[in-house]
Design brief:
By secondary structure, this protein is mainly β. The protein contains one helix and 27 strands. It has three domains: 18-191, Jelly Rolls (Sandwich); 197-289, Immunoglobulin-like (Sandwich); 295-378, Immunoglobulin-like (Sandwich), CATH 2.60.40.
């Protein structure tokens, strides 16, 4: 038994999505040691609408790992093939863990050759996939059936013209049944693999302490808009939202400016949302905000403070820096920081009021190429 695996990675990509055919012979394949087994990975941004292959023997079952990005619109179908004398195929869909989703053997269809039979996994069926995710699509010849490790059937044995629902079974482990000579060439037609938004560019430009993000799409489907996000070290902050153009085949351009961005290198991404709540993330872009002038010292916060306050220091050129705190008599009461500060890399400095009396203090920051000061008030 042979299981040929394919990953149709239909993700938001940097180039337009192109409808393509995956061909088992031309594009590669191989025997899987287990089911679902290991997969071949294709380039992101490709929409596969057709899969072609061949069942070389009566017990051959081919399995493809696909990414369904539009579950509500997903369908898969294959006709019998007059030339190859391939007259009775069946299609099976499994979840990423190998558990059953739904399967179908034959649906009458006069457009198909040899008796007019079509194996169809329709959109809108109660058993259809509901989540954008990785799935396994398998094609076999009747009466091949799938079984779990305990020998239990994965799907109901429900006849030729019915959608067979999954049984309460473990993930697929084997195939059995002994096909009745129905093998040869096949073609599987797919829908529902269209990426909602075809992102063709995304970049960032810096103007002082402002970062402008620009992106463009070549087409959109059900696009509510884009959430602009910036990485904060532990997660992502939402900066704003830009409305999309719904469904359109025309190219669109977008821009968003984030002002007062701190010195340093920052990472941004887009969260594209459909009107039905489905979302995808873009790839990430970076922007470096450089120090204006020779240095930059932020205001201390909080101020007044108790027991601690903080401020940020940045320099345009790497250098040794010392930050000291003095009382109103000019006496040094603490060394807050002493070390090398890298260029355009913010250095957080903490002011600790423990052991000090309430009152006003002056923080003097001295570098190799600058000197500056700020005042703080300790209230106990």
């Amino acid at each position: 038994m042979r299981a040929i695996l394919l990953l149709a990675a239909l993700l938001m990509a940097v180039s337009p999505v192109l409808a393509q055919t995956w061909d088992e012979a031309a594009d590669g394949g191989g025997d899987a040691g287990d089911l679902p087994g290991s997969a071949q990975v294709l380039s992101p941004g490709t929409t596969y609408t057709t899969i072609t292959g061949n069942m070389s023997v009566t017990t051959d079952v081919d399995m493809y790992q696909i990414y369904i990005s539009d579950p509500a619109g997903f369908s898969a179908s294959t006709c019998n093939n007059a030339t190859a004398k391939h007259g009775d195929t069946n299609l099976h869909l499994f979840a990423a863990d190998g558990s059953g989703v739904y399967m179908n053997d034959d649906e009458p269809d006069p457009g198909c050759a040899i008796g007019g039979f079509l194996s169809l996994l329709p959109a809108g069926d109660p058993n259809s996939p509901t989540t954008a995710d990785i799935y396994y699509l398998a094609i076999g010849a009747w009466p091949e059936a799938s079984f779990d490790a305990g020998g239990g059937r994965i799907f109901e044995d429900c006849g030729f013209t019915s959608i067979c629902a999954p049984l309460d079974s473990d993930p697929i482990a084997s195939w059995d049944g002994g096909a009745l000579g129905n093998f040869g060439d096949y073609q599987i037609d797919l829908t529902g693999g269209v990426t909602p938004v075809e992102l063709v560019s995304f970049n960032a430009t810096v103007n002082g302490t402002a970062v402008t993000l620009n992106w463009a799409t070549s087409s959109e489907t059900n696009n509510a808009g884009f959430e602009v996000q910036m990485q904060n070290g532990e997660g992502w902050d939402v900066l704003g939202f830009v409305e999309g153009h719904g469904t359109t085949t025309e190219a669109q351009t977008y821009a968003y400016t984030a002002g007062d961005i701190g010195v340093g290198t920052h990472t941004f991404r887009l969260k594209q949302l459909d009107f039905d709540g489905v979302f995808e993330y873009s790839y990430e872009v970076e922007a470096t905000v450089e120090t204006p002038g020779s240095h930059l010292i932020s205001s201390a916060y909080p101020n007044p403070f108790n027991p601690q306050s903080q401020f940020t220091l940045a320099v345009a050129q790497e250098q040794r820096v010392t930050a000291e705190m003095f009382n109103t008599l000019g006496q040094r009461v603490a060394v807050l920081f002493e070390g090398t500060v890298e260029a355009n890399q913010p250095q957080l400095v903490t002011i600790d009021g423990a052991g000090l009396a309430s009152g006003m203090y002056v923080v003097r920051v001295t570098g190799e190429r600058f000197a500056d000061a700020l005042s703080v008030t300790l209230l106990k």
